[in-house]
Structure formats: structure tokens, C-alpha cells
């Protein structure tokens, strides 16, 4: 239980009367421009000013009239539609009050944060602002922070560390279960790298940086230099802050020499970006599924050896050997295809004939197989552990 008092990091309020006040001022300014236009028209007719000078003045007055008129209409429309709002963002969550409605949530309920607000500035002056930062929550609401609430840049800067923490952790959790995360129609994060359109690049060859309002992906070239291969507008990428934080830490794990990081064990080469290598108790393994299985074996106090050597005519390397049970276990995310089944059958035959009838299993997320040259026997994961202990 967290007993610390929440720390306020950003707050903003929106009052309807402010837009009515702006409407009044811009409407009066539009009337003044209209009056100036008619005054110049009258002055030109009476030859008080030259026709050329009057024409220029009338053009300026007309342009100002249109601009102030549009601003007046926008503020009137906003005043009619908008409700009073109060926003308070804390390090542990936020409250968003709109009229009589109130929404309160912790940061871990955030599903998606997209930085879609834009501002055209001249120095510190905001000339034009459009778009919104959107927060999609787990329980349904889609909240939009616009320029009407305050400076979108200041808001994003305040909440980005907390958004990065929760979304980055969620992305990492999904990747550890060896499932992909799509952040953009043309950007998918896999445990072992990124899929950009149809190009798959492992983490060992990647770098990801934020350049202005774009996320730029770089790939290591033949000259050992990184070259930009794609960029994405920040406003079009879901959970960009979390992705950037995850990418920074992951790149360091897979490229320790580049960052002068000393490691006792190196991660195995990434052969398929669908899987993420890792190190379990000093043993480099090729996927998180293998690490999970090794952890399960330790929890059951079953001795194991990892990739002890090639087997059969195909020299196939099975992931685990369990010497106390005379069993070999290959870890897979999906059932073996036809070609793989032939190879596994050859390995099972070699184990039976050459290694005193040792057995071969395939262990998968949804079940397991006992591999035999004559055919495979399917079973559930619980049945696998029972069958393993009873040859």
C-alpha cells in the first residue's frame, strides 16, 4: 500500500466564460474593422485620401475583419458547446472534471497515449494550435488534451515520464510472452527486433531516436555506421514514450560493446525476431519460452542440460535434456510443420535405437507432443509432467 501523498505535476482549468469574453473582444474588433472599411470608403468618396491609399487600407481592414470574425465565431461556438473543466495530474494518477462529470484513474489504467497536439509558434507566441494529446483508458474513456486546456508541450513534458513507465512496462511484459506489439500501421515491435513494413531488423542492428517530432529508426550498415531507414511522426505512434524507453534499454542489452558495458555472458544471436534471447542463471538461451521452461524445471527440482549436442542424421539440436528421466524436450511456440515433423521423427528414432530408448517431447504454450517415428501423441501441459515422470 502506497502511503505517500500524491505529487501534483500538472494542472489546468477551462472556464466557459473565458471563451465568451474572447468572443466579445474579437466581435468588437471585427466591428471596428468593418467601421474602418466604411470610413475609408467614405474618405475616398470625399477625396480626403487617395483612392490607392484607401484601397490598401480597405484591403487590410477586410483581412482583419475576416480573421477577427472567424475567431469570434470559433469562440462563440466553443462557449456554447464546452463545459467547465478542471484537470489535475499527479505522479500516481489524475482527475479530470468536466461539468458535473468526474473521472479519476491511476496511471496503470492507461492503455494508449498519443501525442497528437501541434503548435505553430513565433518565439513564445503561439500563432496556431491544432490536434490533441489523447489518453485511452482501460475502462473506456478517451480523453483529449487540446490547446484550450493549456500548453500541449508543457503537458506532454510533465506526464511523459509516467506514461513511459507504465506503457513501456506493458510493452515489455507482452514481448516477454513472445507476442508482438503494433504501434503504427508500419511498425511492429517483436521480442527480437522491429518489423518495419515487411523488413525485419534484429535489436543487434538497431537504434531508435527521437528527432524533433519524429521517431527515427536506424540500422547498422556494412561500414559499422547507423543509417536512417524509416521515420514516423510522433503523433501517429501509440505509446511513443514507452517505446523509446524500451528501445533504449533493449539496444544496450544487445549492443553492450557500443556502450562500453561489460557482461559476463553474451546473448545468443537473434535468428528470428519473433523470439527474444536471454540469460538464465548464466546460461544464454534463445527464447523467453526456453527460460520459462528452465525456471519451471528448477521449481520442480528436475535436473536439466541446455542444448547438449546434435542428434540424428540431421544433427538436430534439441533444447533440453533431462538426464534423470531419459527425456529430451524441444520448446516451440507452435506445432511442428511437415518438414519439422520428419526431422523430429528421425531424432526420436535415433534416441530409441542409439540412446537406450530415450524419449523426445515437444513442449508448447497450449500443450505437448510425445514424438514417435510412427506418429505423435498429443497431450495437455499437465499430462506432459505426469508422462515425463512415468516412462
Provide an overview of this structure.
The structure is a single chain. This protein has seven helices and 26 strands. By secondary structure, it is of the alpha+beta class. It folds into three domains: about 15-80; about 85-115 and about 130-270, no CATH class; about 280-390, Trna Endonuclease, Chain: A, domain 1. The strands form eight sheets. A six-stranded mixed sheet has the order 19-22-23-24-25-26. Strands 1-2-3-4 form a four-stranded antiparallel sheet, with helices on one face. The two termini are about 50 Å apart.
Structural class: alpha+beta
Detail the poorly predicted runs: none
What is the number of independent domains? 3
Number of helices: 7
Shape: elongated
Cα-to-Cα separation, first versus last residue: 48 Å
Largest sheet: 6 strands, mixed
What's the count of strands?
A: 26
Radius of gyration from CA coordinates = 32 Å
Strand order of the largest sheet: 19-22-23-24-25-26
Mean pLDDT across all amino acids: 90
Percent of residues in helices comes to: 25-40%
What is the beta-strand fraction?
25-35%
Amino acid at each position: 500500500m502506497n502511503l505517500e501523498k500524491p505529487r501534483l505535476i500538472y494542472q489546468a482549468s477551462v472556464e466557459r466564460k473565458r471563451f465568451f469574453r474572447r468572443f466579445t473582444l474579437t466581435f468588437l474588433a471585427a466591428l471596428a474593422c468593418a467601421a474602418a472599411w466604411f470610413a475609408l470608403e467614405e474618405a475616398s468618396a470625399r477625396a480626403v485620401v487617395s483612392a490607392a491609399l484607401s484601397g490598401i487600407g480597405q484591403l487590410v481592414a477586410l483581412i482583419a475583419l475576416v480573421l477577427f470574425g472567424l475567431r469570434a465565431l470559433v469562440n462563440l461556438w466553443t462557449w456554447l458547446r464546452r463545459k467547465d473543466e478542471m484537470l489535475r495530474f499527479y505522479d500516481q494518477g489524475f482527475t479530470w472534471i468536466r461539468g458535473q462529470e468526474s473521472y479519476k484513474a491511476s496511471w496503470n489504467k492507461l492503455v494508449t497515449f498519443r501525442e497528437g497536439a501541434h503548435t505553430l509558434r513565433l518565439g513564445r507566441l503561439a500563432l496556431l494550435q491544432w490536434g490533441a494529446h489523447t489518453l485511452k483508458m482501460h475502462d473506456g474513456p478517451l480523453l483529449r488534451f487540446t490547446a484550450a486546456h493549456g500548453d500541449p508541450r508543457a503537458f506532454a513534458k510533465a506526464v511523459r515520464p509516467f506514461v513511459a513507465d507504465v506503457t513501456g512496462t506493458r510493452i515489455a511484459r507482452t514481448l516477454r510472452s513472445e507476442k508482438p506489439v503494433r504501434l503504427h500501421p508500419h511498425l511492429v515491435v517483436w521480442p527480437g527486433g522491429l518489423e518495419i513494413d515487411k523488413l525485419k531488423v534484429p535489436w543487434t542492428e538497431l537504434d531508435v531516436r527521437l528527432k524533433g517530432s519524429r521517431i527515427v529508426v536506424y540500422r547498422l550498415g556494412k561500414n559499422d555506421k547507423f543509417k536512417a531507414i524509416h521515420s514516423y511522426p510522433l503523433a501517429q505512434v501509440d505509446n511513443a514514450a514507452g517505446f523509446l524507453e524500451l528501445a533504449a534499454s533493449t539496444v544496450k542489452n544487445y549492443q553492450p560493446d557500443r556502450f562500453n558495458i561489460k557482461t559476463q555472458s553474451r546473448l545468443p544471436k537473434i535468428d528470428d525476431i519473433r523470439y527474444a534471447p536471454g540469460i538464465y542463471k548464466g546460461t544464454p538461451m534463445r527464447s523467453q519460452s526456453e527460460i520459462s521452461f528452465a525456471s519451471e524445471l528448477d521449481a520442480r527440482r528436475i535436473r536439466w542440460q541446455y542444448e547438449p549436442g546434435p542428434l540424428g542424421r540431421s544433427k538436430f539440436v534439441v533444447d533440453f535434456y533431462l538426464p534423470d528421466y531419459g527425456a529430451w524436450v524441444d520448446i516451440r511456440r507452435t506445432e511442428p510443420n511437415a518438414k519439422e515433423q520428419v526431422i523430429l521423427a528421425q531424432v526420436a528414432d535415433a534416441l530409441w535405437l542409439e540412446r537406450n530408448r530415450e524419449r523426445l517431447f515437444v513442449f508448447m504454450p497450449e500443450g505437448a507432443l510425445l514424438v514417435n517415428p510412427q506418429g505423435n501423441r498429443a497431450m495437455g501441459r499437465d499430462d506432459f509432467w505426469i508422462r515425463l515422470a512415468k516412462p
